[in-house]
Specification:
The structure holds 2 protein chains of 2 kinds. By secondary structure, chain A is an alpha/beta fold. Chain A has 9 helices and 9 strands. Classes of the chains: A alpha/beta, B mainly alpha.
Chain lengths: 301, 273
């Protein structure tokens, strides 16, 4: 949450010129499941969450009344403090956890199956199999689908080239740096040519330089392949730099409080990071995040 | 670069030499000390034989000792094999079916915690074939480390990797083959190293029990027989072979563990200087 520090806690209105998709939807009553976010995306809906809640067996309400529509080719960031349900939402979308109430629809089901090779996931840790080579780690999703090693080799080489690890196919994960391991993890996610890539704070454990480099690399890959990305992060700056939509969430219970459209052209470079537009977006998002941290709904109004 | 490689190889050779020379020197020094104490104090051989006499006894009685050693080797390895097969299969059943674990784990614990020396006479009574009875005794001791370690290993697969396999809709067999087995291997290897030693202990203890019932087949029986005849050098010679067998088993499994895990698992990886 370093990005929040240093900003005043009053005057939480968005700076002029920063588009806000809708008004704040902070819900005081945890039983109220009326929160609804309508997407402004013009691309066809890949999946739609309607009033989705998740309560864990211990009674914790991890997510309340989340509604979201995501289209093909979007880059969406879930941003919020720890415990706001970002990762839970991601796991629900991936089908790794079951929703307690609400609906999760895939309008174009054939093209966007909820599992298998249409959807890929990158975890916070690289989550590689330490007992086998980089090549075999990337081969895994294809192998599980019955694709032989030889048949998979061109696709694996392609994604290795994409992430800049072409010479490292035969090494073991322990021989790689943290950033390189994460690149392997991304390559594994991309090898199936997914239509949807879910990323759960993938760069959180990396140093700043590596993180910036991987941000740029990820954007370059996304621009080339244009799959839907849902990217969970704690960093305001990262979310604004990467996304065309930032979904800000609050904790206790986890819920969406606001969405920001980042209508800035791609490719985004270091120049964008230092531009006034970028700062305006960051300030707007940070202020909303402050309201989430303080639980001060009125400030956002 | 080649200079650095050469230096690294040199350091590795030196490290290997140090690891061999130091323990060997200590063992030789102890043996020399032992020999000197016996000779200087003129200790009778029926109280404490000198290492040279033990070695002479071993060579002179090799025709008697070798069949006993071979029997103990066979018994130990068969018991270990049975422990590996039984322990692993049971571990897989425990990991796959919770009701199997709930139902059978207490029985496994009871068999483990009850002293073998207390069960062995009963087993020798109920099992008609002595060799089978000895095998059962050794198996009882050896199988539990395999079982408990493998169960822990199968349950220790990385949570995110489990999710990944679920996401990619892996079949139960694929999950088992590509995730659970590799994840459990370090734990299994640790269990195997323990079980190797325990199988030998089980075989020797069972032989002792069977020996008292009149069966003379393994090294333990040679030790018993020698003790009845007060042939102390022979006792030491047989004891030496038992120890040698234990050390050999340990080194075989330690080497196997290094071969299987050395390229990826923290426990067996060589540290950079």
């Amino acid at each position: 949450m370093a990005g929040v520090a240093g900003f005043p806690r009053s005057n939480l209105a968005a700076p002029a010129g920063v588009p806000r998709l809708r008004g704040p939807t902070l819900i005081a009553d945890m039983h109220n499941t009326e929160t609804s976010i309508s997407s402004t995306t013009s691309s066809p809906a890949l999946f739609r969450m309607q009033d989705v809640s998740k309560r864990f067996p211990n009674g914790t309400l991890a997510l309340q009344g989340m509604s979201l529509e995501c289209g093909d080719h979007e880059f969406i960031s879930f941003l919020g403090p720890s415990g706001c349900g970002k990762s839970t939402a991601l796991r629900l979308i991936a089908g790794l956890s079951k929703i307690s109430s609400g609906t999760l629809e895939w309008p174009n089901r054939q093209a966007a199956a909820t599992g298998g090779r249409e959807l890929s996931f990158v975890f916070q840790e690289p989550t590689l199999m330490p007992w086998t080579s980089v090549f075999n780690n990337i081969w895994l999703p294809l192998k599980l689908s019955g694709v032989s090693r030889d048949a998979a080799a061109p696709a694996i080489q392609k994604v290795l080239d994409m992430v800049g690890l072409a010479r490292f196919a035969d090494v073991y994960p322990r021989e790689l740096s943290g950033g390189m391991k994460m690149r392997v993890s991304i390559a594994r996610a991309l090898v199936t040519q997914p239509r949807m890539l879910l990323m759960d704070e993938p760069f959180a454990a990396l140093d700043e330089m590596t993180r910036l480099k991987l941000n740029n690399d990820l954007l370059a890959i996304w621009r080339e392949h244009r799959f839907l990305v849902i990217f969970v992060t704690h960093s305001v700056y990262e979310s604004v730099y990467l996304s065309n939509r930032v979904v800000v969430m609050a904790a206790r219970p986890g819920r969406v409080i606001e969405e920001f459209q980042i209508d800035e052209p791609y490719p985004r470079s270091e120049e964008f990071r230092t531009s006034s537009r970028y700062n305006q977006h960051c300030i707007a998002v940070q202020r909303t995040l402050y309201s989430a941290l303080d639980g001060d709904e009125s400030a956002d109004h | 670069m080649s200079h650095l490689d050469e230096h690294q190889r040199k350091m590795q050779r030196r490290d290997r030499a140090v690891r061999t020379v130091i323990p060997l020197t200590i063992v030789i020094a102890l043996l020399i000390g032992w020999e000197m104490i016996v000779r200087i104090n003129e200790i009778p051989h029926y109280i404490l034989p000198a290492p040279s006499l033990i070695w002479k006894t071993l060579v002179d009685n090799w025709a008697t000792l070798w069949p006993a050693l071979w029997f103990t080797i066979k018994l130990t390895l068969l018991a270990l094999l049975a422990a590996v097969v039984g322990g692993t299969l049971l571990a897989v059943a425990f990991a796959m079916f919770r009701w199997v674990e709930i139902g059978f784990f207490p029985i496994a614990v009871i068999l483990q915690v009850t002293p073998l020396i207390a069960i062995a006479p009963l087993i020798l009574i109920y099992v008609p074939n002595t060799t089978t009875a000895l095998l059962l005794c050794a198996w009882l001791v050896a199988f539990f480390p395999i079982l408990s370690n493998t169960v822990i290993g199968l349950k220790s697969a990385d949570r995110n990797l489990r999710d990944l396999f679920e996401l990619y809709q892996a079949s139960p067999w694929q999950r088992f083959r590509y995730l659970l087995i590799p994840s459990a291997t370090p734990y299994f290897m640790a269990g195997l190293k323990i079980a190797g030693g325990l199988a030998l202990i089980g075989a020797v203890v069972a032989e002792f029990t069977a020996g008292t019932a009149g069966q003379e087949t393994g090294l333990a029986s040679r030790i018993l027989e020698s003790s009845f005849r007060t042939e102390i050098p022979m006792m030491f010679a047989a004891l030496f072979l038992v120890s040698l067998l234990g050390v050999a088993i340990f080194f075989v499994f330690a080497t196997l563990s290094k071969l299987v895990l050395g390229h990826w698992h923290e426990s067996e990886m060589r540290r950079e200087a």
